[in-house]
Structure formats: structure tokens, C-alpha cells
Specification:
The protein is an alpha/beta fold. Helix 1 packs parallel to helix 4. Bound molecules: S-adenosylmethionine (SAM).
Length: 250
């Protein structure tokens, strides 16, 4: 079901958001690359292969490939991969792409120095996410880094829609309507990150005036929807809340 829904989303919107996740950019700057000149960068540590797990339309494949990393991407959505391939081709960049589920990755143990997964492990039941994270651990080399972005229980959509498990709901609004959304609390995070040491954790919030619906707030944040904001009606805010987590294979 979810694969079909993701295919539909990529067919209609090309994945919507076309710029890299802010937390991921900070992760690269903090742990992987140092600026040493106007347009010159140095590796903070040697990085071979980078895996984008659940790469979608490829916004992070582009980001890593532009910086000359050796990039790999997997996703269950063939449409997402098709968009990513076309985008890479147009930019003259390359990445190795394959259709795959995250719980059974088509790679040998210890293949990657970095695994990133943005807004993916929260679109499944937490048990499946834990399985996927253990699969990340399997394909991570010794001391490899992982970066994940996950929706938090402080998010304004928490509790909306049909409940299908603890902290898990089917989204009823927005462009991801009909998909599973798990909202992570600290208890979930400690289960998910077993076998990894946390290097950094941010609670990242984006706020929108309550006069915006969730659909409009999404458009506003990702594509510049131009609504008018009434200052007399600013409270309470709709808050998108995510965890941005950098970790190291233990
Ligand atoms: C919200 S999108 C994020 C895409 C991309 N990481 C980004 O940040 O733009 C979630 C992605 O996860 C993929 N996905 C969901 N469940 C998956 C699974 N079990 N295995 C692999 N990919 C999955 C979807 O197809 C979709 O491309």
C-alpha cells in the first residue's frame, strides 16, 4: 500500500521539497567537511561510500554527489528513483540507485562510512524502523556515522488520524495523507538507536500561524505558498517538530 502511495506522490509532485534537510547540511559541516578556502573543503575524516536510505526524489543524493562523495541510494518507490535518476542526469552527477526496502538492504556488511535517512523511519511502524536501523548497522563500517530525521511526539499532527500503534497514526491531511506516521519520543529513540552512540541530537521546530491549515503550512514551508498573516491571530502556532540525530556505530 505505502509503495503505491509514494509512487503516486512522486508522480504528482516530484517529491515536493527540492532542497536538502537543514539538519543534514549541519551534520555534513559538523562531522564530515571543513571549509579551508573560498570554495575548498577538507575531509574531517576519510569517507568512502555514503548511503541515502529512502532517498526519494534524490535531494540528498544531489547534495552529496555535488560534493564529490561516492553516493548510493535506495527506496521502495520506483517513481521516486525515476525522478532521482532524471534529476542526477540533468545535473551531470552520478549515484548508484536501487529499489529496495530498508529492512533488507542489497549491500555487503560494512559497505558504508555514512548512512543518512531523512523522514523515512517515521513512515513505518517503529518495529520495522528498529529492524531497518539494525540493517543500517550491518552495512555500516566500523565507526561509521548515521544521520536520521524523525518526527517527534511534540509535533502538531500528533494524535490526529487513525491510531495504529503506540505513537503511530495514519495521516489524514497534507500531501502525505493516508501514510503511516510514527512520532518518536525518547523511549522510542533509545530502542531505535541500540548499537549506535548519539553524537548530537536537535529538537528542530518550525512554527506557522494557526490561521494556516496543515496543507498550507506545508506549502508555505516547502514551496513558498503566499498567504496573508493576521498579526492579531498569531497564537497558537502550528508546530512541526522533528528530531535531527547524528550517531556513530558503537
Ligand atoms: C518523506 S519521503 C523522504 C524522502 C527523502 N529521504 C527526502 O528526505 O526527501 C519518505 C521516503 O521513504 C521511502 N520509504 C518508505 N518506506 C520505505 C521502506 N520500507 N523501504 C525503503 N524506502 C521506504 C518512500 O518511498 C519515500 O521516498
Amino acid at each position: 500500500m505505502s509503495q503505491k502511495r509514494w509512487d503516486e506522490i512522486y508522480t504528482k509532485t516530484f517529491g515536493g521539497v527540492w532542497y536538502p534537510d537543514e539538519g543534514l547540511v549541519r551534520f555534513v559541516a559538523r562531522f564530515l567537511r571543513r571549509k579551508v578556502g573560498v570554495e575548498a573543503y577538507d575531509d574531517k575524516r576519510p569517507v568512502g561510500r555514503v548511503l541515502d536510505a529512502g532517498c526519494g526524489n534524490g535531494r540528498h543524493l544531489i547534495f552529496f554527489a555535488e560534493q564529490k562523495f561516492d553516493v548510493y541510494g535506495v527506496d521502495i518507490s520506483k517513481e521516486g528513483l525515476r525522478v532521482a535518476r532524471a534529476w542526477l542526469r540533468k545535473r551531470g552527477l552520478t549515484a548508484y540507485l536501487q529499489a529496495s526496502t530498508l529492512t533488507k538492504l542489497p549491500f555487503r556488511p560494512k559497505s558504508f562510512d555514512v548512512v543518512v535517512s531523512c523522514e523515512v523511519l517515521d513512515h513505518m511502524h517503529v518495529r520495522q524502523a528498529i529492524e531497518a536501523m539494525q540493517e543500517f548497522k550491518r552495512v555500516c563500517a566500523k565507526g561509521a556515522y548515521a544521520y536520521v530525521s524523525l518526527r517527534s511526539t511534540a509535533d502538531c499532527e500528533y494524535g490526529r488520524g487513525e491510531k495504529t500503534g503506540r505513537n503511530t497514526f495514519v495521516l489524514e491531511e497534507g500531501y502525505e495523507k493516508g501514510l503511516i506516521q510514527h512520532f518518536y519520543d525518547l523511549e522510542d529513540l533509545s530502542e531505535l538507536l541500540k548499537g549506535f552512540r548519539i553524537l548530537d541530537i536537535e529538537s528542530h521546530e518550525k512554527s506557522f500561524p494557526c490561521s494556516f491549515s496543515i496543507d498550507k503550512a506545508f506549502l508555505q514551508s516547502s514551496q513558498g505558498f503566499r498567504g496573508h498573516v493576521d498579526l492579531a491571530n498569531l497564537e497558537p502556532f502550528l508546530k512541526y517538530s522533528r528530531w535531527h540525530i547524528a550517531a556513530e556505530k558503537a
